[in-house]
Write a structure and sequence with these properties.
By secondary structure, the protein is mainly alpha-helical. It has one domain (6-337). It is built from 15 helices and two strands. The longest helix is centred in the last third of the chain and has 30 residues, at 308-337.
Length: 344
Amino acid sequence: MTPRTGTLSCQLDLQADHHASTLVELTGLAIVLIVLYYVGGVLGWSANLNLQIGIDLLFFVYGASLASDSSPATAGGLLARHLLRILPSYWVVLSAYWLCNVHFLQLHYAASNLVVHYLGLQGAFGDASALSFAEPFCLVTMLLAFTVLYAVAWALRASPAALLLTAALFCVPLILVFSAYGQAASYRYLGRPSAGFFIGVLAGWVLKTGRIELRLGPTLALALFLLIYVSYVEGVQFLSTAAAISLAGAYVLAWKRLAPPGQRKWVISFLSFIGERWLEILLIFQPLIREYNTYLLGRWFSLGTPGGGALLLGVAAGLLVAIAAGSALRLAVGALSSLTPFSP
């Protein structure tokens, strides 16, 4: 007996300008959560709120942004546009921290480690490589991988089921390898949130076209089997992705509709400001609030073991510097990128 198949379809009436600005806000929200997560680590806050959910949200929104990008007409154009958005800022910040870490913190890096970092591959070589400069740098590996993977899978944009199978074949082995070899940071920051990117791509297709058709058949069944059952059997669950999506939904469908107009206006403005500079702030902030915070407090104020108040002031100063430097870098890189045919 041949199994019956069918199609699930969804059609929405959406405004492109509205969803583009909302994605920028959600990107800003993701960065705020990530920053608060690291600030909590410096100041010893409770981890009960699981603010690392910002990483899941960032991957989800990045997928939606890629898929809803209406500028490039080809896979190559999309790849060039988004690589130009990531790599110049990353290389500038990486070079700055390399020089500063060697001079001020007396750290030294093997040539192989530097090559891996300049290629953006540090997240693929386990925790020791991924965390040797700054923890957020390991996210660059996944952002680059997602960009390349989406460009390669450009032909799948007409087949959501095939995209989900691609997601399963990428995410499940990745997270199982990180789990099996005890790479806790890579598992937490790269493996577990990875499924969110592909779900974000599906969401981006809906935003771009206003509709999606999901064909019920072997491809979809195998994708769901790998993503849900196989990962569940191995003790791995992509539940953090669902939590990130629920947070995005609560912000867009509940908070933006129910919040007082005055509060809504300034929060949207703030999140949009951060969202437009998300990459630069993400790359810059963490060493400033941690390593260089304690270094400068010890160097300038002779505080060998800084107290909570001193650390808090250092964190605030570090975040202000990160935002200012990130804004300047965004303008500079944007000006240079505008000279290319694939301006971000």
